[in-house]
Structure formats: C-alpha cells, structure tokens
Amino acid sequence: MLYRANGADGAFVREAYRITRDTTWSAVDRRHVLVCVEKGIVRFGIEGHEYAAAEGDQIFIPSGSVYTRSPADHGAATICYLRFETGKPFSEVYRSEAYGEEGGACLLLKNHISGGKAALGLAERILEAVSDGRAVMRRMADMMLAELLYMLSAETVRSLENVRPSATENEKLFRVREALKYIRAHYTSTIGLNDLTECCGISKQHLIRLFRQETGMTPIRYVNYYRMSRARLLIRDRPDLRIEEIAQEMGYGNPHYFSRLFTSVIGQTPSQCREKVIQAESSDRSVLTRHAGDI
Topology of 167-281 in CATH? Predict the structure, then answer.
C-alpha cells in the first residue's frame, strides 16, 4: 500500500532503539513505526500483506495498522525501531493519486522500501542523537528523521515509475480499503457483512473474494483479528484493567466469549498474553536508548 502525508509539518522521534530477535511479535501501534533492518532477514505482515526485509531494507508501518514481526528460517535479525509522529497523519492513496495536489512538502512511503546503506547510516545517527539526551540533539534527531523519510520517499517514487496498475486493480484496492476504513472506525461495534457491503457498494461474494485476494482473510475473520489485536494493545498499555473491562472496551458484553475468541485468534488467553506482553515489552525496552521516551 501507499501512504502520503504533508511533510511540511515535521516529523518527531518519540522512541529509537535497536533489538536482536528471533521471536514472533504482533501488535497495533499508536505511532508510526519505521523499522530498519541492520542484519539478517525478518518477515513482517501488515494488514494481511507479507514482506521479507533484509539488510538495508526499511519497513514502514502507519499508526493503527495490524502487524506481525517474525523470523525468517528461525534466524535472529538485528533491527532498529524508530517510532515517530507527524504533524498530519498519513493516509492511504492510489498509485494514480501519488502525485496529487498537496500543500507543502509531500512524504510518500510504501510498506517495504530498500534505502540501502545511506538509510542505515541515518538511522544509526538518529539512535546516537537520541542516546545523547540533550535538547539540541533531540532536535537534531527530528531533522535527521525528516531527511530519512524524504530519502525513502524518493526511493518510493523511483519504484513507482515502473509500476502502473490497471483501472481494475485500482478499483479492487478502493473497495477493500473502504471496508478496512469502516472496520477501523467501528471495531467496537457490531460489524456484519451487510455493513461492509453497504459501505463498499458491492455484493457479499464480491467483497469476500476481493478481501481474500488483498488480505488473505475473509472480512469477518479480519474484523476479529483487528479487534483482538486492539485488545492486545490495550492489555499492553493498561495491564491493570480486568478482562471484563477489556471486553467491554472492545464491544463485547460477554467476557467469556471475548476470552474464547481472543484465545482462538491470538493463541493465548488474555491473562497469558498480559504476562508475555509485559515480559516482551520489558525485554525490548531494556535496550531502549537513554532518554528516548517522549522527546
């Protein structure tokens, strides 16, 4: 997918750290995430699409996206995580709209980008600036992040020049993205196929077929996956909440049904996930560079 944002309002580093992992991780992040692969190969699944990133590759994950990180061939990979915010949010766009009217400087990113050694060098400098902790270096980190994002935007533009999807492909993407937008906006409410077909303007069978082609899931399976991923994020951010409260936040009146569905989708009970999420977060944050909290 393609994402565009007005870059004139700036980009701000919130967290920057390096980890080496050979484990599977899934989440929904409230901030944009830029992953720079420094060594090894790591797989990312973003909204049902799979990407294998090697040394010199970057993975861009817009805020609110469902994503998983998993090892390739059970090998560990060293990756740099840059969590950041922008003055205005990224929005999904068609390839044909990539160069549309937009005031100010435009950032144009896709999920998988190959920025090479130059991008890795900038990521390393951002880590060093964040680690320094001084206010002037924090501002330097923001400026270097902007430089990195523009560099990757240029790489995105170059890659688009040779790929011109048909009108049929654009129509297919439009229908699925309308359904995805609806799910993200109404995931705490009851969502049925009728709701999705109404917002997309196509038949149930057509929607199911397009959804499977683009995400690898049926619409209702994706709804459950998205809800449980949001629940997992809530467990991570609010470990003090009771399961009943989490179920209510996700729109489930029956906590037992919620727990069964959570276990079916995530592969762990909510209680088990709470413990493992806390442990994993603690492990990841143990290598968080100094003063990289809310800069």
Answer: Arc Repressor Mutant, subunit A (1.10.10)
pLDDT digits (tens, 9 = 90+) for 150-208: 999 999 988 877 655 555 656 677 788 888 888 888 888 889 999 998 888 888 888 88
> What's the one-letter identity of residue 177?
R
Q: What is the pTM of this model?
A: 0.67
What fold is seen in the domain 2-163?
Jelly Rolls (2.60.120)
pLDDT tens, residue by residue, 60-76: 999 888 888 988 877 88
Give the position of tokens 């720079």.
Answer: 36
- CA atoms within 13 A of residue 220's CA, in its CB half-sphere: 9
Domain with CATH 1.10.10.60 in the chain: 167-281
Q: Residue 289 pLDDT > 50, yes or no? A: no
